[in-house]
Amino acid sequence: MASLGELERAVMDRLWSADGPLAAAELRDGLADRGLALTTVHTVLSRLEQKGFVVHDDARPRRFRARGTREEHAADLMHEVLGQAGDRQAVLARFVGGVDADEARLLRELLAAAGPDADR
Amino acid sequence: MLPATAAALAVLAALLAWPVPALLARARWPRRDPLVALVCWQAIGLAGGLSIIGALLVHGLAPWGHSLPEAWWHWVTRHPADAPVRGDHWVAQTLAAVLAVELVGVLLLSWVRTARTRRRHRELLELVVQPASLPMALPATLPDARLLEHPAPVAFCIPGARPLLVLSSGMVAELDDAQLAAVVAHERAHLREHHHLYLLPFVAWEAALPVLPAAGRAHAAVRTLVEMRADDVALGSLPGPAPRRTLAQAIVVAAGGAGGAGVPSGALAVTGSAVGARVVRLLEPPSPLPAWGRVLALLSAGLLLLVPTALLLLPAF
């Protein structure tokens, strides 16, 4: 039995690669190798809608499409990570914050000046 | 009947609100032993809250008894006061309650808020990123690592019950295998030692007491110390001839590449010097704190917690 997270990813992959909005039955047929019931597809879709990844239109039957592309979601997340102000950084631990060009040059000089034997 | 106790607590609170954090933030020794310094910061935060709320409470409840537990019990059971109750007693009580509710409330609020944002990030990552697309160079034991397609060299981890370690494709492209392993070891150290929990009270306190310069200073110091601690832990697990240099190189590459567009300048000014301090510390390691220094620091931290607790519980002098 595949986990819900895995099904969500499979459904999103379908929606992202589709040319237009898809009905739940089309999604089920597209994922035929998983042998999903239509209700399962609907469960996954409503979860994805709650999380804001999927929207549906008013056609009958309803058709679903991804709200943003995979790249847009990745870019949004990255923008949040890169632009995080100090008070928001409790959310995640970033390896190193960005520095301005001057300090970046200073750091490189520091590294070069230290030479290869910093670990004596 | 507790004026001396209240005064002592107030003095302690004042010391912990300004000179003590200022001294510790400026001291040179914390970078020699970040973990001990982190313990000291936690003690300062806890003792500071305890003594300011305690001072107000002790003064506010003074008419009801000779020690705080006794006075508290009389107050709760509606026992008549032994001494006349003046307006300033009520004011102190109210202030104590407001401050306690605010500090605890802000702590809970930021806990909930960060948990929610983390969940959203995790959901996003789990949908957007294929778990199979791991950096090939890394050891195979990275079930919680994700590779995010983005040109900027960025690495971060999302703490929590199901932690995630995220590397950008830019990071993988710009670093060699040893440097990448150093980055992963650093982030792993954050997760293993639950560094986000050390930070949480200071994030909350800075939000709760924006007028207190010490709150912001403490937050910045703790953030830097947590990074230094993760560097130290990472060094212990890194193979290769020059782990210090490898880690320093990774930091310099990541810091230089992630700057520029998209990063607000306010964040830069804060993190800038901390990054430099980390690199200097790796390249020219300060001698470790001697055992007596560690013991002294830990004893002071313990004493810092013991004094307000004793003042609160013991009968008035």
Could you name the CATH topology of the domain at 4-66 in chain A? Answer: Arc Repressor Mutant, subunit A
Count of separate DSSP helical elements of chain A: 5
Shape of chain B: elongated
Helix count from the secondary structure assignment of chain B = 12
CATH architecture of the domain at 4-66 in chain A: Orthogonal Bundle
Helix and strand element order of chain A:
HEHHEEHEH
Q: How would you classify the quaternary structure?
A: heterodimer
Helix percent of chain A reads 40-55%
The radius of gyration computed from the alpha-carbon positions of chain B, rounded to a whole number of angstroms, is 24 Å
Describe the secondary structure blueprint for this structure.
The complex is a heterodimer of chains A (120) and B (317).
Chain A: H1 4-17, E1 22-23, H2 24-30, H3 38-50, E2 54-56, E3 63-66, H4 70-82, E4 93-94, H5 101-114
Antiparallel strand pairs in A: 1-3, 2-3
Chain B: H1 3-17, H2 19-26, H3 34-60, H4 68-76, H5 87-128, E1 145-148, E2 155-158, E3 164-168, H6 169-174, H7 177-192, H8 195-208, H9 213-237, H10 243-258, H11 265-283, H12 291-313
Parallel strand pairs in B: 1-3
Antiparallel strand pairs in B: 2-3
Helix pairs in contact in B: 1-3, 3-5, 3-9, 3-12, 5-8, 7-9, 7-10, 8-9, 9-11, 10-11
